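Re: guanosine-5'-triphosphate structure - here you go.
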Amino acid sequence: MVNISIPKTPYRKVPAPWRAAYEAHIQIVERQVAVVAAWVLLITVVFYQFTHQLRLGHNADVWLTEAACRLPVLLCALLTLVSHYTGKPRCQSRYLLRAMGLSVMTMILSLFLVHYSGQHENIYQVTNGMVISFFGVTVLSVRGPKEFWLLFAVPLAIFVPVALAMGIATKALLPFLFDPMVMMVIGFVLSEALRQLRKGEFLARQQLREQATTDQLTGLLNRRAMLQLLEQEHARAQRYGATYSLILGDLDRFKGVNDRYGHNIGDIVLQETAHRLKRQIRAEDALCRWGGEEFLILLPQTSLDGALHVAEKARLALADEPMEAGEHSIHQTISLGMTSCQGGNDIESAIKRADDALYLAKENGRNRIEVIAAPGLEPPVTADDIKPAQTGAP
Ligand SMILES: Nc1nc2c(ncn2[C@@H]2O[C@H](COP(=O)(O)OP(=O)(O)OP(=O)(O)O)[C@@H](O)[C@H]2O)c(=O)[nH]1
């Protein structure tokens, strides 16, 4: 059974390494919201325009004025849909959402001014529309308060002075704006709660994904994650004829460490080994805990020449300095088997070669490196070229 430990304090903020993934996640949500909003706007704006006569009676001038107020919303919704379904123009959903939000606010506030100064009897229809619009616009602020303030503050900051300039007193405005404002607050609280829920769900999923690909003791990649990377690198090698190398390391006489000092100290040795090995590789290389006391290093686009250099650094990283574990100082060494691959055969045979080479290293005295080249690939160096192994395993 897989034992997944759930952290006691779940993340509240997105940790730095996950920020890019979170940004991608937000962009997907924005895209979905933008498409749904565009369809809703397209349908409702057209519907309201063509039921104008039914709702407000015949007045060609008002019909045209309303059409002019609704046109920008229609255009923004159409632009969003065209951009989504054809890929052109390439607009970020964040900006399309902004354009739709601002155009809806401009539309509804303009309609208010038109009807307030003209046919006063229609004003309650418009304030109903305001309530719906204010709520709808809060849904568009997927990124939270910053977007929210932009969508509401800018149009309202223009609307109030314009209304005052038109001779509408602030006192007269307030009763009409009261319900829409309440709706705006409700919408804000709801969309903020939704945003926090989405963030929490993202963080929980990301944590589970990390746990599924990470070895709990050492924090390194686990075997499953490494196999995925290996498949990718193998496919790349096959396609471009590049060479990658594998180094399989196994701690020497590690059973003795456990037997002598206990399992807890053995665990510390494994953690320190992971730490030291990690320092010997580049960011583009991968290191995993392959099994109990086995570690596998994948060196993409690296021939045996370069890999041998890394393997020797890894060997010395352990052999040169004893490990401090509790009150014990443990001289732990590692044996390493190496191979390279040009993608010719399958991954399993490359791993098998590294394993056979490791077996040779154990046979030949431990704390040393052995190389088995891929068939047809001459090793540029042999194990004999490597500094003779020092014995010293505990
Ligand atoms: N402390 C600890 N020990 C582990 C863990 N996983 C595997 N081991 C131990 O690693 C030891 C491996 O021992 P062996 O396979 O006999 O090999 P060795 O003693 O290292 O000898 P050689 O490989 O031949 O040099 C066993 O005692 C396992 O219990 C772990 O997570 N923690």
